Automatic annotation (TrEMBL):
InterPro entries: ACX-like_C, Hydant_A_N, Hydantoinase_A, Hydantoinase_B, Oxoprolinase-like. Residues 1253-1278 are annotated as: Disordered. It comes from Trichoplusia ni. This is 5-oxoprolinase. Belongs to the oxoprolinase family. Residues 739-1259 form the Hydantoinase B/oxoprolinase domain. Residues 237-534 form the Hydantoinase A/oxoprolinase domain.
Length: 1292
C-alpha cells in the first residue's frame, strides 16, 4: 500500500478537553489531549494540537507567514461542542423572528408545559430571538369536504402544496410592509432572522418572498423554516429554524477563526465537521440545527464501529462518563436516530443520534440529606471542580474514587491549583469526607443505627452514583422491549473506567469492552465516520399500491440530489450508497416511525422495498401489537446518502499469549468489605492475549480502568481491553436501616414503577395512554401504603393508595393469587370516572395474605355517559359521567371477565340521554395492557425478593416511607418556627371562594415539636349542583403536591408524606360529596382551587391562574379537547411565568398545524395577554389569549374557573386578571359565555379565551424589575429519548 500523502487529523473539541487522533504519512498514530480553553498558551486548541504534532513530526509546522502549513495536511475531521455551549449559555447571534400575525409569543409558550412540575418558581428556557415581526399573511388547509364557511366575497385563492394538499391563501403577503419592518430591524443591529409561517412545510412561497427581501437588505443569516426542516408542526419547526438562525453565524465565525490560522484559510483542503446524526459534512455546509450533538456523536460512531462484534452478536450500550454528565446510547447494527429532541430547552427537528445525557459524572456533588445519600444532579463543573482540584470545590464522585484508592495522584498530570502546576490534593478530600461522615453518624445515632467509617460512606456514594446511571440504561433498553443484561457495555470517556465493572454487574451484563483509544474515542470515531448528505421532504400520502409509483419517483429524485451533492465533495461514485426511508404512522395516531424497507417481493413492496412490513414489525416490537385494520400514512420521504470512508487496517502488535503481565507496583484499594492489595499495570506494557486478574488497576495515559475483584481483563489482538464480569461478593443486606441501601432501594422501587409504565405505554392502544401518556403506575406495601409511583402526575399523587386500601377493606381475606381488581368510583379512592385503576395483589408461598400490591391507573378516552369523552360540562349526577366500579373482579383466578366487564361498560346507556362506552375495543385492550403492566411490576419485585429476601424488601418499603415522613416533619417544624416568628401563632387560616360563591376553608394547626400538622377543611361549603364536587382523593393529592413543592427537593413521594398530616374533611361538603354526586369538574377545576387555599394558608406564593380552561367541541362523529395555560403566581424572589400550565395540570397543547389539518377550525391567535399579571415587587405571569374560528356547526363546551374572583396577590402584591370567555358571532355580536357553558356555534363564529394570570408578590413600589431573579438556570440540562419520555409523562 502506497504511503498516504499527508497527515490526517480527527479532533473532538469538548467542553473541557480537546482530543486528537492523528495518522502520520508513515502510518504512525499520534494521540493527544489538551485543555480546550487555555488563553495564556494558545487561542484555538484544535489548531494548536495540529501545530504541535506537525512540529514534532516534521520539525517545521509553519509557513512563511507564520501560519500552520496546510500543504502538509491531507484531511481534518472535527466534532465540536461550540453549538451546544452557545445554546446552553445563550451566546448565539443577535436574531429576530418573523412569524404570522397573532403568534408573536408562540415559541415562548411552546407546548405550554412547565419543565419541572414541583417548581413553584417556574424556570423556562429563554427564547433565542431578541425581536419579533408579525406578518399579516396566512395560508390554511382547504378541507373542502368539511369547511362550511361562506366563501363568497372572500378573495381566498386555492393552491396545491408540495405534499399534494389543497391549501387556501386567505391573506397575501404585503411585500412593502415587511420590507419596512426588516429595514428597521437591521438598523437595531440584528444580523440574523428566522422566518416561521404556518403550513410552510407544504406552501413555501411566502417564506421564500420574505427570505428574498431579507437577503436583499443584507442580513448575514436567513433561516426559512421549510428549508431548515420541512416537517409538519409549527412549534418544533419554529424552534429548529430559530436555533439555525441563532447558531449558524456563531459556528461560521468559529470555523472562520479556526481556518484563518492555516495557509490560505484551508482553501481547497478537505475539512469535514461531524453532525448530530453521526455523519460528516464539509466545513462550509456545517450549520446550527445539525450541530447540536457534533461532539458526542463521534463517540457513538467510535464504539459502534469497534465494539459491535458480529461473533458475540450482542447489541452494545455506549457508556460515556465525563466530568459533569454521562451519555448513554445503544447500537444494534444501525445507528439509532430520533427526529425530534430537546436540548437546553430548544426542540430541534432534525435527524440526530439518540444520545441520553444524565446528570451523573465525575463532578457530581455528594450530599447527605434527610437520611439519604445523593450523588448529583448538581455538578462542581470545571470551575471550581472537585474538592481535590485545589480550588475549594465541593465533595464529588471523583473525590470518592480518590479516597478509596481508585485514582492514583502520581499518574495524574500536575495541572491543579491556582497556578495549575500542582498534583491532586488527597488531604482536601479526606477533610471533606471526615466532615460528611460525622454528619451521617450524627443522624444514624438518633435511630440507634450502626456508625459508618469514612470509606464505607465513600463506597456508599459510589454505589448510589452507579445506581443513578443504571436507571436511564434500564429505561433506554426496556422502553424498546430489550433486556439490559443481553448487551455488551462499551465504556469510554475520562471517568467511565472506574465505574464500568459495577455498572455492568448491577445491570447483569457480563462483558465490558474498553477500546485502546477509549479516552479519546470521540476523536477516533471522527476518523472512522462516513460523510452524510440528508435529503427529506414532507408527503401526505397513503401507503398503498396506487401510490407506489409516486413514492418511488420521490425517493429516486432525493437519492439523485444526495448523490450529486456527495460527488461535488469529491467522493467517487463507487463509494456512495443511498438509504431510502419513509416516515410512517397509522391513521388516527401520532406515533410516526422512520423506517427503512425490508428487501422482499410482496404485494406491499414498492421498487425500493417493502416499507409496510418493516413498519409493522417495528411497531409490534416497540408497542406489542399492530392496528391491521388501519391505513398507513406517509408523513415524510427521506434519503440518507452516505459517502463511505476507507479506514486503513490496524497492524496487530506481537502477542503475549501464555506470558504473565508484570505489574508496575501494588497499592491498596477499598472494595466492599475492606482494603485489598491491588496490582497496577500500564496499558502500553500489556501485550495482546495476556490476562489480568482483578483486583487491578490498568493505567492508560488517557484514563484509569478499575478491574474489580472477581473480574478479569483480557487484552485483545489489537490491544483493546475486554473485562469479563464475575458474580462479585454479594453484600449481605439485613432488615436494619442503612443509608446507602436506602438510597439504592429508593432508585430500585422508582425504577419498578417506571418500567411498569413503559409496558403500559407499549401495550396500550388509545391515544390518551400511548401518546398523551395520561397514566401512572405504583407499588404498595402489605398495608396498602404507597411505596413508589411514576410518573408524578399531580392529580394521581397518593390517590391510588386510597383505592388499594378500600379494596383491602371490602375484600378482606377473600383475595387469592391470580385475582385482579378494577375500581374508579370516587368513594373507592377514584379521581374521576375515566381514570380506571387496575390493582393486583401479590402473594408469597410463606404467607396467606398479599405481601404487596401493584396498581396502574390510566385515563380512558370514553366510558359512556352524556357526552363523547366522558367529561360532560353539564353533568349533575355521577351516573351521567359513565360506568362506575367500586370493586370489580376484573380477573378471577387468572380468568379475564370480559362478558361482565362489557355489561358494566354498556350500563350507562340505561340513564336518560346517556350512552354506554363509545369505544369498547379500546377499553378492553387498554385494561389488558394495565394488567400486563402490573404483571411486569410483580416480576420485578419478585426479582428483588430473590436477590435480597422478602423480609429485607418489606423492611425497606417501610424505611422508604419513614424517610419521606422525616423530610416532611423537618419541613413542618421549620414552617411552624417561621409562622411563630412572623405572626406569633402556629395556626394558619385561609379561605378561597369558587366562582359560584362556595367557600373552601382550611385551618392548619402546626406542632413545632413533633413536626406534624392538622389540616382541617371545616367551614367548606356543601356539595354543589353540577360537577365541581371533588372526591376525597383529590384533596389528598393536592396536599401531597403542595407539601412536595414546599419541601423544595426530591423526596420519595409515598404514604410517609402524609403520615405527619391529619386531614379532616367534613362529609357532605364539596370536598367529600355524597355517593351519587357529579365530580368531573372537581378533578380539573376544584383541585386547582384547593392548591390555591393551601399555598395561601402557608403563605408560600401568590395565586396562579387556578384553572385549566377546559374546552371541548365537536359533532356526533368527532371531538376535540384542550386545556389552555395561563399565568403563574410570583413569590419571594421570583416573577411569575406567563403562558404556562400550573399546579395540578401540565398538559401539552396540540400544535396549530395539527389542529388546522385535522379539525374544521382555525387558530387565529395564540399569544400572551400583555401586562395582565398582577403587579408587585415580583410580578405575576401573564395569561393567554387564544382565538378559534369554527369552520362548521359545532357544539362548544367550556368548563373554567376564576371568571369572577381574581387570583390573589400576596404580601401587598396585586391580584392577577380574571379570565373571560367570549363568543363573537359571524354577524359581529360579542357574547360573554361566563365560566361554564355549552352552546351551539356556527361556521365563522370565533371563540376568544382570555385565561387568568398570576398574582404579584410584595408591594409594587419597590418593584424588582431591576433586581435579577435570585437564581440562574442550572447550566446542565438532560437530553435524549428517556428524558423526552419523562417530560411527556409529566405534561399530562
Amino acid at each position: 500500500m502506497a504511503p498516504q500523502p499527508g497527515f490526517q487529523f480527527a479532533i473532538d473539541r469538548g467542553g473541557t478537553f480537546t482530543d486528537v487522533y492523528a495518522r502520520c504519512p508513515s502510518g504512525k498514530v499520534r494521540v493527544m489531549k489538551l485543555l480546550s480553553v487555555d488563553p495564556q498558551n494558545y487561542d484555538d486548541a484544535p489548531r494548536e494540537a495540529i501545530r504541535r504534532i506537525l512540529q514534532e513530526e516534521t520539525g517545521n509546522a509553519l509557513d512563511k507567514d507564520g501560519k500552520v502549513n496546510s500543504s502538509l495536511i491531507e484531511s481534518i475531521r472535527m466534532g465540536t461542542t461550540v453549538a451546544t455551549n452557545a445554546l446552553l449559555e445563550r451566546k448565539g447571534a443577535k436574531m429576530a423572528l418573523v412569524i404570522n400575525k397573532g403568534f408573536k409569543d408562540l415559541l415562548y409558550i411552546g407546548n405550554q408545559a412547565r419543565p419541572n412540575i414541583f417548581q413553584l418558581d417556574i424556570k423556562r428556557p429563554g427564547v433565542l430571538y431578541t425581536d419579533v415581526i408579525e406578518v399579516d399573511c396566512r395560508v390554511i388547509p382547504a378541507l373542502e369536504d368539511r369547511c362550511q364557511i361562506e366563501k363568497t366575497g372572500k378573495n381566498w385563492k386555492q393552491v396545491v402544496g408540495t405534499t399534494g394538499e389543497k391549501m387556501l391563501i386567505v391573506k397575501e403577503l404585503e411585500e412593502e410592509e415587511i420590507r419596512r419592518d426588516l429595514v428597521e430591524l437591521k438598523k437595531k443591529g440584528i444580523e440574523s432572522v428566522a422566518v416561521v409561517l404556518a403550513h410552510s412545510y407544504t406552501f413555501h412561497d411566502h417564506e421564500l418572498q420574505i427570505g428574498k427581501i431579507a437577503n436583499e437588505i443584507g442580513f448575514k443569516q436567513v433561516s426559512l423554516s421549510h428549508a431548515v426542516t420541512s416537517m409538519v408542526r409549527m412549534v418544533p419547526r419554529g424552534f429548529t429554524a430559530s436555533a439555525d438562525a441563532y447558531l449558524t453565524p456563531h459556528i461560521k465565525e468559529y470555523v472562520r477563526g479556526f481556518a484563518d490560522g492555516f495557509t490560505d484559510g484551508l482553501k481547497g483542503s478537505n475539512v469535514l465537521f461531524m453532525q448530530s446524526d453521526g455523519g460528516l459534512t464539509p466545513m462550509n455546509m456545517f450549520n446550527g440545527s445539525r450541530a447540536i450533538l457534533s461532539g458526542p456523536a463521534g463517540g457513538v460512531v467510535g464504539y459502534a464501529m469497534t465494539a459491535y462484534q458480529k461473533e458475540t452478536g450482542l447489541p452494545v450500550i455506549g457508556f460515556d462518563m465525563g466530568g459533569t454528565s454521562t451519555d448513554v446510547s445503544r447500537y444494534a447494527g444501525a445507528l439509532e436516530h430520533v427526529h425530534e429532541a430537546t436540548t437546553a430547552g430548544v426542540t430541534i427537528q432534525a435527524p440526530q443520534l439518540d444520545i441520553n445525557t444524565v446528570a451523573a459524572g465525575g463532578g457530581s456533588m455528594l450530599v447527605f440529606r434527610a437520611g439519604l445519600l445523593l450523588a448529583g444532579p448538581q455538578s462542581a463543573g470545571a470551575q471550581p471542580g472537585p474538592a481535590c482540584y485545589r480550588k475549594g470545590g465541593p465533595l464529588t464522585v471523583t473525590d470518592a474514587n480518590l479516597l478509596l484508592g481508585r485514582l492514583l495522584p502520581e499518574y495524574f498530570p500536575k495541572i491543579f491549583g491556582p497556578t495549575e502546576k500542582e498534583a491532586l490534593d488527597k488531604e482536601a478530600t479526606v477533610t471533606a469526607f471526615k466532615k460528611i461522615t460525622e454528619e451521617i453518624n450524627q443522624f444514624l445515632k438518633q435511630d440507634g443505627g450502626k456508625e459508618m467509617t469514612m470509606e464505607e460512606v465513600a463506597m456508599g456514594f459510589i454505589n448510589v452514583a452507579n445506581e443513578a446511571m443504571c436507571r436511564p440504561i434500564r429505561a433506554l433498553t426496556t422502553a424498546r422491549g430489550h433486556d439490559a443484561s443481553q448487551h455488551v457495555l462499551a465504556c469510554f470517556g475520562g471517568a467511565g473506567g472506574q465505574h464500568a465493572c459495577s455498572v455492568a454487574r448491577q445491570l447483569g451484563i457480563s462483558t465490558v469492552l474498553i477500546h485502546k483509544y477509549a479516552g479519546i474515542l470521540s476523536a477516533y470515531g471522527m476518523a472512522l465516520a462516513h460523510i452524510v448528505q440528508e435529503e427529506q421532504q414532507p408527503a401526505a400520502a397513503l401507503y398503498r399500491p396506487d401510490a407506489f409509483e409516486e413514492l418511488d419517483r420521490q425517493l429516486d429524485v432525493l437519492a439523485a440530489v444526495a448523490r450529486d451533492k456527495l460527488k461535488k465533495q469529491g467522493i467517487p461514485e463507487s463509494q456512495i450508497i443511498t438509504e431510502p426511508y419513509l416516515h410512517l404512522r397509522y391513521a388516527g395516531t401520532d406515533c410516526a416511525l422512520m423506517v427503512s424497507p425490508v428487501q422482499q417481493d410482496s404485494p406491499t413492496a414498492c421498487k425500493h422495498g417493502d416499507f409496510y412490513t418493516a413498519f409493522v414489525n417495528r411497531y409490534k416490537s416497540e408497542f406489542g401489537f399492530t392496528l391491521s385494520q388501519r391505513d398507513v400514512i406517509v408523513d415524510d420521504v427521506r434519503v440518507r446518502g452516505v459517502g463511505m470512508s476507507t479506514v486503513p487496517v490496524d497492524v496487530a502488535p506481537p502477542s503475549g499469549k501464555g506470558t504473565t503481565p508484570v505489574p508496575e507496583k501494588a497499592t491498596k484499594v477499598y472494595f466492599e468489605g475492606g482494603y485489598r492489595d491491588t496490582s497496577i499495570y500500564l496499558l502500553e506494557n500489556l501485550k495482546p492475549e495476556q490476562v489480568v486478574q482483578g483486583p487491578a488497576i490498568i493505567m492508560d495515559s488517557l484514563s484509569t480502568i478499575l478491574v474489580e475483584p472477581d473480574c478479569r481483563a483480557e487484552i485483545s489482538t489489537y490491544g483493546d481491553i475486554r473485562i469479563v464480569i464475575g458474580s462479585g461478593q454479594p453484600k449481605r443486606v439485613t432488615t436494619a436501616l442503612e443509608s446507602v441501601q436506602l438510597s439504592i432501594f429508593s432508585h430500585r422501587f422508582m425504577s419498578i414503577a417506571e418500567q411498569m409504565g413503559r409496558v403500559l405505554q407499549r401495550t396500550s392502544i388509545s391515544v390518551n395512554i400511548k401518546e398523551r401518556l395520561d397514566f401512572s403506575c405504583a407499588l404498595f406495601g402489605a398495608d396498602g401504603g404507597l411505596v413508589s409511583n411514576a410518573p408524578h402526575i399531580p392529580v394521581h399523587l397518593g390517590a391510588m393508595q386510597e383505592t388499594v386500601q378500600y379494596q383491602m377493606k371490602v375484600r378482606g381475606d377473600s383475595l387469592k393469587a391470580g385475582d385482579v381488581l378494577l375500581a374508579n368510583h370516587p368513594k373507592a379512592g377514584g379521581s374521576h370516572l375515566p381514570d380506571l385503576t387496575v390493582i393486583t395483589p401479590v402473594f408469597h408461598k410463606s404467607q396467606s395474605r398479599p405481601i404487596f400490591f401493584v396498581a396502574s391507573r390510566g385515563h380512558h378516552a370514553d366510558i359512556g355517559g352524556l357526552t363523547p369523552g366522558s367529561m360532560p360540562p353539564h353533568s349533575v349526577c355521577l351516573a351521567q359521567e359513565g360506568a362506575a366500579f367500586k370493586s370489580m373482579l376484573l380477573v378471577d383466578g387468572g380468568d379475564f371477565k370480559e362478558k361482565e366487564l362489557t355489561e358494566e361498560l354498556m350500563r350507562p346507556a340505561q340513564e336518560p340521554g346517556c350512552s354506554g362506552t363509545r369505544n369498547l375495543a379500546d377499553n378492553l385492550s387498554d385494561l389488558k395492557a394495565q394488567v400486563a403492566a402490573n404483571q411486569r411490576g410483580i416480576q420485578l419485585v419478585s426479582e428483588l425478593i430473590d436477590e435480597y429476601g422478602l423480609d429485607v424488601v418489606q423492611a425497606y418499603m417501610t424505611h422508604i416511607q419513614n424517610n419521606a415522613e422525616l423530610a416532611v416533619r423537618d419541613m413542618l417544624k421549620e414552617i411552624a418556627r417561621n409562622a411563630l416568628a412572623k405572626s406569633g401563632t402556629t395556626v394558619l387560616k385561609a379561605t378561597e371562594y369558587m366562582d359560584n360563591g362556595t367557600p373552601i376553608t382550611l385551618t392548619v394547626t402546626l406542632d413545632e415539636k413533633k413536626g406534624s400538622a392538622i389540616c382541617d377543611f371545616t367551614g367548606t361549603g356543601v356539595e354543589v349542583w353540577g360537577n365541581l364536587n371533588a372526591p376525597r382523593a383529590i384533596t389528598l393529592s393536592a396536599l401531597i403536591y403542595c407539601l412536595r413543592c414546599m419541601v423544595g427537593h426530591d423526596v420519595p413521594l409515598n404514604q410517609g408524606c402524609l403520615n405527619p398530616v391529619q386531614v379532616i374533611i367534613p362529609a357532605g361538603t364539596i370536598l367529600d360529596p355524597s355517593e351519587s354526586a357529579a365530580v368531573v369538574g372537581g378533578n380539573v377545576l376544584t383541585s386547582q382551587r384547593i392548591v390555591d387555599v393551601v399555598l395561601k394558608a402557608f403563605q408560600v406564593c401568590a395565586a396562579s391562574q387556578g384553572c385549566m380552561n377546559n374546552l371541548t367541541l365537536g359533532e356526533e362523529d368527532w371531538g376535540y379537547y384542550e386545556t389552555v395555560a395561563g399565568g403563574s403566581g410570583a413569590g419571594p424572589g421570583w416573577h411569575g411565568s406567563g403562558g404556562v400550565h400550573t399546579h395540578m395540570t401540565n398538559t401539552r397543547i396540540t400544535d396549530v398545524e395539527i389542529v388546522e389539518r385535522r379539525y374544521p377550525m382555525l387558530v387565529t391567535k395564540f399569544s400572551l395577554r400583555a401586562e395582565s399579571g398582577g403587579r408587585g415587587r415580583w410580578n405575576g405571569g401573564d395569561g393567554i389569549t387564544r382565538e378559534l374560528v369554527f369552520r362548521r356547526n359545532v357544539q362548544l363546551s367550556v368548563l373554567t374557573e376564576r371568571r369572577s374572583f381574581q387570583p390573589y396577590g400576596m404580601n401587598g402584591g396585586e391580584p392577577g386578571e380574571r379570565g373571560l370567555n367570549l363568543l363573537q358571532r359571524v354577524d359581529g355580536r360579542l357574547i360573554n359565555l361566563g365560566g361554564k357553558a355549552s352552546i351551539h356555534a356556527y361556521p365563522g363564529d370565533k371563540y376568544i379565551m382570555n385565561s387568568p394570570s398570576g398574582g404579584g408578590y410584595g408591594p409594587a413600589s419597590n418593584s424588582a424589575n431591576t433586581d435579577e431573579q435570585t437564581h440562574k438556570q442550572a447550566s446542565f440540562l438532560e437530553r435524549g429519548s428517556v428524558f423526552e419520555y419523562r417530560s411527556a409523562q409529566e405534561s399530562v
